[in-house]
Structures are given as C-alpha cells and as structure tokens.
Amino acid sequence: xVMEKEIIVGVSDFSLADTLECGQCFRYWKVEEQEYLIAxxxxxxxxxxxxxxxxxxxxxxxxVLNYWSNFFDINRDYGKLKQTLSAEDAIMxxxxxxxxxxxxxxxxxxxxxxxxxxxxxxxxxxxxxxxETLCQTYGTLLGEGRYGFPTAxxxxxxxxxxxxxxxxxxxxxxxxxxxxxxxxxxxPLADLVQMETEELRNKLLSIYGVGRKVAxxxxxxxxxxxxxxxxxxxxxxxMSYYYFQKEEVPLQEIFQLAQEKYGDNAGFAQQYLxxxxxxxxxxxxxx
DNA sequence: ATCCAGGATCTCC
DNA sequence: GGAGATCATGGA
Length: 287
What we know:
By secondary structure, the protein is α+β, with helices and mostly antiparallel strands. It contains 14 helices and seven strands.
C-alpha cells in the first residue's frame, strides 16, 4: 500500500480539460486552470495536469490510482489510434487536431445510464444541474460539498412524483424504470459485462426511456464497447454534411459508413466528431 | 422572449 | 412501419 498524498503519473496524447469537457461526463468542477475535482460513481478525486504529467491529490492507495487510471483510459495508445483514424480522411484529421487530447472515459454504469436518460431532449448545462440534484438528494456526501452519484439502492425510495418535483420532467418515469430494473436484479453487472454488444444493447433497450442513442452512449462510455457509434443530432449533422453533402441522412446509412470507415474505433471517432461539431456549430444554420 | 436541447415514445395512417 | 406530435424545463 503506497501512501503518498500526491501521486504523479506520466501521460501522453491526453488533455484532462478536453476529456472532461467534451460532453461525455457531467460530474466535474474546474478548480483552476488545468485542475479539476472529478466524481465518478461514489468516488471523487482532485487532478491537475501539467503538460504530460497528471497529479492525483489524496490518491492514497494503488487501488485508488488504478480506478482513476482506468477511468481516464490512460494506458491506451491514443497516438496510434489517432494516426489510424486521421489517415481515414481530412475531416477526421481535422476533428482530431481540434482536440487531440480527448480520451473515452470508463464510467460507472448506473451513473452513466441515468445521466444519459436525462440527456434526451436536453442541454448539457442543464443535464449537469439535474445530475447534481439527484446526487444531492439521494447520494452520499463525499467531501468539499460534493456528493456521490446515488446507487440504485439509494434511489429505491424515489417516486415519479418526487423526481418530477426535483425537475426531471418527463424523464422521471424513465428513471423509475431504470431504478426498478436495477434493484430487481434485471441488470446484473457481472453478467452484462460478459454479453456481446448486440445482446447488451437489446438488454439496455428494454429499459423504458432508453432508445438507440442512449443505449449506445452507455455501451461506449461505461462498457468500453469502442466499436459503437452513438449518433445524436450533432454527429448526424456532421456526418450528413461532410460525407453525404446532405442536410440529413438516414441513421442506418450513417451507421454503415461509420462501421466501414472507423470499424472497431468508431466510438473514438464519434467523440472527436461530436466535440468538433458542437464547438464549431457544424451543420447548424450558418455553420 | 421564445427557441430548442447528446431523444424516446405514442399516435395516427 | 414511417412521419409527426408530444413531452417538462430552463439555459441561451
């Protein structure tokens, strides 16, 4: 057991800020430039980046460090990955060059599922606020005024009415079904991680309020299914605009092209494209 | 102010 | 089975 107060880890092809702020997660707070407080599930850490060094504060054990290394996907060769994707076409190269330090996080399943259920027909700033409300209402205080994301058990007393009072709107009934399925053993994590992606997707789709887009986000961001290509309005726009020279292309055609071009790396490609499109307003009127 | 959001479901035909 | 309406709410 290592007991340093601060642990420094070398990284490459990584930007803490871009990885947190590219829209894949919602529980982070900027402390100062290049320094963030980050929560995932029932854990929290403070991290600072200085060039190719990450400093983990209060990471008092190897176990803690391992959790966050996995969370940030620090040990993958993103240099090689980006090289492969960039060679595909100029658009992908440009999207990658725009934010070359984006990694795909490995998030807590229940948190990821509820967060992306909340994401539908919603803005990212408001998603963050709604997630925070759930944490403050049902979660455990972790310190520094921040709460853990509640477990399904912690949310078992929730009602649709209460969730509506908390501002979850029409998503309240969806959250209720997710809690109910989780607490009744219908979403056993140990079994889910073993499933083929297609089977796991169908399992997620059985939850009321989880459609293809939300299911794919869960598959990519919490189950590490990097071949999945979550296609929201932004990704749909940027793909339609650049690859089809049309305003809108059927989803199936986008999935097919993504599979052909990016294959098992489609999930990474998606995140570079999403971040690039959203920050630059690609495909929007006037963009 | 009023438009719209990292969609999904329901309701028609 | 595909297009269109509906959903709650607040950030921009």
